[in-house]
Each structure stands twice: as C-alpha cells, then as structure tokens.
Amino acid sequence: MPPFDVAVVGAGPGGSATAAFLAERGFSVALLDRACFPRDKPCAEYVSPEARRILDGLLPDGALAAADPAELKGMRIVSADGTSFEGRFLGSHPYRGYATHGIALRRSELDTALVEAATRRGAQLMERASVGRIDEPRGGVRALGVRQGRERRSVSARLIVGADGLHSQVAKQLGLARRGSVSRVALVTHAVGVRDMRPIGEMHVCDAGYVGLAPVGHGLTNVSVVVDTSRVTIGGAPVNWFQEMLARFPEVWRRLELATYVTPLRGAGPFARRTTRATAERVALVGDAADFCDPFTGEGIFSALSGAELLGEHVSSLIETDQLAQQDLRSYDRVRRRTFRGKWWVERIISWVVGRPAVLDHVARRLRAKPHLADLLVGVTGDFVPAGKILRPAYARQLVW
User: Fold this and answer.
1) Contact present, 353 and 363 (Cβ < 8 Å)
2) In whole angstroms, what is the distance from residue 177 CA to residue 340 CA?
3) 358 near 72, Cβ under 8 Å?
4) b/e map of 344-381 (b: 16 or more CB within 10 Å)?
5) Is this prediction's pTM over 0.70?
6) What phi-psi label fits residue 342: left (phi over 0), alpha (psi between -120 and 50 degrees) or beta?
7) What's the DSSP call for residue 287?
C-alpha cells in the first residue's frame, strides 16, 4: 500500500472532520477506527449553536434536519441545595450565534454522517482497524502497525493525526499524554418516558458528582451520571452504582421513576487528561486526544470539530511543502493555545466550582437572581460569546456580591 499524505487515527467527530477537511484540499487520507459504523459512544451528545456552523459546512443540505435532532434552547443547572438557574442561547446580550439554539442527537447518527462526509471527499475508511505500534519517521513517513481481524498490515503516511479520544494510543506512545487533577468517570444511557423534559439541557449537581439530562430526538433522553471517584468509592456492577447515584437526586429520581432504559450503560473516563504538547515529529493531535478536562460544559463535540477545522487550515501548507518536523508543527501548538486558551480557563473554573457544592450553591443563587449573567455564561458554553466576557473581574464580582 503506497504511503498516504495523512493517516487519521480515530473516526469520531474530530477525526472524521479532519479527514474531510484535508481530503477536500486534495490530500490522500486514510481514516482508521477500531469500530464499525454506525456505532454508539458514551457522550452527552450536545452540539452547540456554533458547532452547527461547522457541521453545516461538512454535511449535505438538510442532513442535520433529516436526523430529527432535539432542539436545545439553553441550559438549566441545579445545585446541591436545590437552587436552579437557566441560561438561554438567545439571551439578554448582544451576541448571536450561528443558530439560535443548540441541538442534541445520538452519536451513532452524528458520527456516521461525519464518516460519510469524509469518504465523500475522498478519504479511505478502514473500519475494525486497531492501531498498534507507531514507528519512528523513516524516509519522510511514519508507519502504523494495523490489525483488521486476522490481517495485519502497515499503513504509512507523511503525517499521522491522533484523533483517538480520551485514552489516545497515539499520544501515549509518543509520550505526549499526562493525567489531570480531576478524577471523574461517567455512565451514559438513553431512556424513554422521562417526565417533564423541556428543550433544554440539564445538569444536577451533588457532592458526589452530577447527572445530565437532555432530549436527543425520537422521544429519547440522554441520561449521564458522572461520579467524582475521589469522593465516592465505586464498586459492584455499574448498573448498581448508576442507580445509587441517581437516588442522590430526588428530582431526577422522581422524573425517571416510570422511564424505560433502551440502550446499554456505556462507561467513559477517567476524565481530565492533558498533553505536554499536541505535536511530535510528523504527528499532530486533535479533539479529546489533545486535551480533555471535564464533560460538564458539554463542549467535546465543538472542541473536536473546531480543532479539526483549525488543524486543516494550519497544516495544509506544511503537508504541501513537507515541513512536518516537530519544530515545524510547533506553530500548530501555538495557534491552538491562542485559539482555545480562554475556553480552557472557563472549563477549568467551572470544573473547580462544580467540585465544591457550597460554592456552586452561592453562584447558582446569584445567577438565578441575575439572568443576564446566566445567559452570558451559557453563551460562552454555546461557543459564540467570547470567553473573556466571563473571565473579567467585573463578572466575577457580580457572582460573589
């Protein structure tokens, strides 16, 4: 098999979008994933208003509407003492996103649509492909050891893109990954018959973690339980501690009392991993492989899509000129940090507050009393309000006093 220009490891939103963007520019692209599509993935399944801009550029006209996603007009947060506040995407501020609302849809539908977008543009999809070793650069390429069933092969490319998620083997093999300070794991399923669902996403918080509820279309509700393992000992069957966590939330428990779970529990985590950098010799990382903090803000899909967009724009000229040494790719690290630094700060601050229920109780009371501040916060998590608007001391003072 002749070398590809790019081999993308992982066909989630970040990997498929990267493959689509680079194939569209005329590069030969291999897209590898150990799964076979369609497939489900544990995820909050939230697509922000600004993420829809990128999807509309990748997918055929009407493709998102045909999937019949649920509309999300904002977010509701319920703190440990029961205080709740809501923020709206179409808020009481001058900022307007690409769309007036977010959406939510099953990852089985979204990921399949993005894989098809990549292959339509010319990327070669390799399903059930498990990537093993990554060889050192030789002759202007890196080789991947790939197993498909009983068959073993070598796939070579001038650039390897690690888009293989939270536990990225690409990042691990190249010594780029390190653990973060937060220790949280999640279980995710879908249910029908959840009471009192509205077109908003919900996060219910207690001292042990949080529960997310969101409609995802077709009468389904995404139910996500995230546990702080530094505060709760997890043991026994996953279904047992899933139910034990739900019982800590009286409102959630009541609304799920008559619900029927229709998909298996799927686990994810532990969350909070960092990379020392997102590049190595002829290697770049994107999406969760590059950084992951906490799923509370639900920005994984946007981060993956916008990271793919940024990578595609930045490395195209480097591929053309074969300037793919580590020192050449450092410019991607710099532009990536510059682009996402504000959002990273917001995610880390929110994660810190969520882990301290008394602090969140106070913040929730302030945001309930000042809906315009809640709208700004939700607009930032919707990816169309600049992060700096809530990182200013004036914003913080209004949450304290």
Assistant:
1) yes
2) 18
3) no
4) eebbbebbebbbebeebebbbebbbeeeebbbbbbbbb
5) yes
6) alpha
7) G
Number of compact structural domains in the chain: 1
Partners of 214 in beta bridges: 222
**124 in the Ramachandran plot: left (φ > 0), alpha (ψ -120 to 50) or beta?**
beta
Give a yes or no: residue 218 inside a domain.
no
Bridge partners of residue 189, in order along the sequence: 223
Paired tokens of 290: 């590059």
Task: Specify if 112 maps to a domain.
Answer: yes
Asked if residue 385 belongs to a domain, the reply is no
Render pLDDT for 144-171 as a digit per residue (tens, 0 to 9).
999 998 899 999 999 999 999 888 899 9
Alpha-carbon distance of 364 to 158, in angstroms, equals 50
Residues 6+ apart with CB under 8 A from 44: 104, 188, 201, 212, 214, 222, 224, 295, 298, 300
Q: Tell me which residue range forms the domain holding 292.
A: 4-70+104-180+271-347
DSSP 238: H
Q: What is the C-alpha to C-alpha distance for residues 31 and 112, in angstroms, rounded to an integer?
A: 13
Burial class (CB in 10 A: 0-12, 13-18, 19+), 290: buried
Reference 271, options 183, 139, 373, 162; nearest CA is 183
**Is 317 inside any structural domain?**
yes
CB 110 within 8 A of CB 51: no
CATH for 8: 3.50.50.60
Q: Give every CB contact of residue 130 below 8 A, 6+ residues apart in sequence.
A: 34, 146, 147, 148
Phi/psi region, residue 97 (left: phi>0; alpha: psi -120 to 50; beta: rest), is beta
Distances (CA, A) of 234 to 8, 143, 222, 272: 35, 40, 22, 18
Mean pLDDT of 1-22: 95
Alpha-carbon span 365 to 100, nearest angstrom: 26
pLDDT tens digits, one per residue of 314-373:
999 999 999 999 999 999 999 999 999 999 899 889 988 988 999 999 999 999 999 999
